[in-house]
Amino acid sequence: MRALYTLLWWVALPLLPLRLWWRGRREPGYREHVGERFGRYAKPLPRGALWVHAVSAGETRAAAPLIARLRDAYPDLPILLTCMTATGRAAGRELYGDTVFQCFLPYDVPFAVRRFLSAAAPRIGVLLETELWPNLVRIGAQAGVPIVLANARLSARSAAGYARLRGFAHAAFGALAGVAAQTADDAARLRALGARDVVVTGNIKFDASAPPAMRELAARFRARFGARRVFIAAATRDGEEALLLEALVRHPLPPGTLTLIVPRHPQRFDDVAALLSARGLAFVRRSDERDVPPAVDIVLGDSMGEMYAYYGAADVAFVGGSLLPLGGQNLIEPLALGVPVLVGPHTFNFADAATNAVAAGAALRVTDADAMVRAAGALLADTARRAAMRERALAFVATHRGAVDRLWAWLAPRLAQRHDAGPLSRGK
Hints:
The chain is of the alpha/beta class. The chain folds into 2 domains: about 1-200 and about 400-425, Rossmann fold; about 210-400, Rossmann fold (3-Layer(aba) Sandwich).
């Protein structure tokens, strides 16, 4: 199976530059640093770094407390942050500036992986969440680079898929040097697939907090929106905006409500703008950088890296990717700001957090777009209920903080062992 997996990568290789070029039509970042996808670097990578891999923007933001710990504990060692998406790289640049080195993780083809490991010679690799690349972990283990999976999650659906390729999955998960899982269920599924040294440390996304700049921007957004209640449909995915707009026609929100729509992916900003225009709806784009007239009830959040500010400017939030069977996006960010949250029926990407937030009274689960808009309207009209949900949201997040401390307690001994280890060229 591993040979077949690698063969499929080889077959796909000629098409990958075309795919990057195609995605780069709307996200120019995909047309930059293309050589890094194949293990080629315009500038030398820092050798002997502590390497953290965060696939996209959400994981990059979640990595902030861990990266802060690494910088404090090992100021003498460089930190290398890799990602796979253009938004992840942009988020890393905004969050960390020049304090960390960044590059794209290469595609999981043996020659590209070997080039990366040879160029970077990391002391240790920390892959966040479900970023498991079989050739990467296998070749890393052979090269003497311990690679761990941190903040790991594995849904029952994904576990069933891996189980159909049991030998292949056991080899891949078994090559990891250890796993720090979010929940006991995640840990059990990972152990069943061959992972070793599995512990439960919680979800580090509970430890992330809104930077002061985002809180200041949220205040500026509120000033632009005027004295009205704000309902945000955040991190929406393709098809959800249409469902939302149709439901708003059937169930209008209370008078004086502004609806803020923030698509999950930047390449869809213009698509959503076209959808609003086609329906004859007046709206202001965040990129217009102007106040929202009282007669306009919709704002299109067409910017990246400002989700905390959008949530901070909202009274009620729907977290997207959950109306359709896409697994849902991160509901912890609005809860951490005390914003009452609505989620749809599909939250398997954040199953534990969503279930527990609903049980705690910090979030509500709805069955479809109509139920979501009705629930939003009821909350917007009930100040006391919103205030109660706000307190429950803040208490819920506070209860689950501390995952970074637990992760660090598990990770620190491994880091200490690797601190004095030099780059691979010195025999490691």
